[in-house]
Amino acid sequence: MRIRKYIKKPVTVEAVFLTKGNMEEIAEWIRSGGYEARIEGDHLIIQTLEGEQRASAGYYIVRGIKGEFYAVRKDIFETTYDILEVAQ
């Protein structure tokens, strides 16, 4: 067996930080992209390529390179991604 090292290719994604105040707006963004999203209590439920995913305030909601949506915990997102542009 030969173990090799790999580096992740740079990929540009769109993302927004989920709060209780913008949950409905983000759910609509997801639905407009052709994916299911609903709110249950304090959670946003997203239909991802791997199945349903629950996100709460403090997560980032990401639209990937194929248009798919998924949630990423804040600490993992901020370790993995750098901002390219600041929204105005």
Describe this structure in words.
This protein is α+β, with helices and mostly antiparallel strands. The chain is built from 2 helices and 6 strands; from the N terminus they run βαβββββα. The strands form 2 sheets. Strands 1-5-6 form a 3-stranded antiparallel sheet. Strands 2-3-4 form a 3-stranded antiparallel sheet, covered by helices on one side. It is globular, with a radius of gyration of 14 Å. The N and C termini lie far apart (51 Å).
The helix/strand series, from N terminus to C terminus, equals EHEEEEEH
**Weakly predicted, low-confidence segments:** none
Report the helical percentage: 10-25%
Query: Number of helical segments?
Result: 2
Q: Which strand order spans the largest sheet, edge to edge or round the barrel?
A: 1-5-6
Distance between the termini: 51 Å
- Number of domain modules: 1
Structural class: alpha+beta
Counting DSSP E segments of at least 2 residues, the number of strands comes to 6
What is Rg?
A: 14 Å
Task: Outline the biggest β-sheet.
Answer: 3 strands, antiparallel
Beta-strand residue percentage:
25-35%
Global geometry? globular
Mean pLDDT equals 94
Features:
single chain; 88 residues; alpha+beta; three-stranded antiparallel beta sheet; 34% strand
Can you lay out the helices and strands and say which pair or pack?
Elements: E1 14-17, H1 23-32, E2 37-40, E3 43-48, E4 51-56, E5 59-63, E6 69-73, H2 74-80
Antiparallel strand pairs: 1-5, 2-3, 3-4, 5-6
